[in-house]
Amino acid sequence: MPTFTYMCNSCNKIFEKQLSFKEYDTISVLCECGSNDLQRDFQADVATVVESQKTVGSLANKNTSRMSDDEKESINRKNNAYLNKEFTGKLPEGAKTFEKKNGKRVL
Ligand SMILES: [Zn+2]
Question: How many Å apart are CA 63 and CA 76, to the nearest integer?
C-alpha cells in the first residue's frame, strides 16, 4: 500500500498515512489536531520511492532488463576475461590463486 505524506496547514505537522489508491480517493484524512486542511508533501513521497529502489540488485535488474542479449554477453565476457589462461591483466579483488580446469582458469 502506498504511503502518502501530508502536511497540516493548521499545526504544520508532517505525517504519513498508508492508503490504497481507492482510499486516497474516497477517505478524507484528518490531522491529529483535527484539521482537514492538509496538503500532500509530494517531494517527501518521491524521495521515499527513489530510496526504496536504491539497492544494487534492483538497479542491476533495471539495467539488464534494458540491455539486449548482445550487450549482456559482451559484459559477461568482459567480467569473466580473467578466467581465460591467456589473460594477463589485473585479477579481480580477492582473487590470488588459480587452478586449471578444462584449459580454463577457475578461482
Ligand atoms: Zn494539524
Answer: 14
Q: How far apart are CA 2 and CA 17, in angstroms?
A: 8
Per-domain boundaries in the chain: 3-52, 56-106
Cα→Cα distances 21→4, 15, 17, 24, 95, Å: 10, 18, 12, 5, 50
- 30 neighbors 36 (Cβ within 8 angstroms): yes
Which amino acid, one-letter code, is at 35? S
Computed on alpha carbons and rounded to an integer, the radius of gyration of the chain in Å comes to: 26
In angstroms, what is the span from residue 22 Cα to ligand 1's centroid? 23
Distance 10 CA to ligand 1 centre (A): 5
Q: Kindly tell me the burial class for residue 86, based on how many C-beta atoms sit within 10 Å of its own C-beta (0-12, 13-18, 19 or more).
A: exposed
C-alpha 92 to ligand 1 mean position (Å)? 56
pTM value is 0.45
pLDDT per residue as tens digits for the range 2-18: 889 999 999 999 999 99
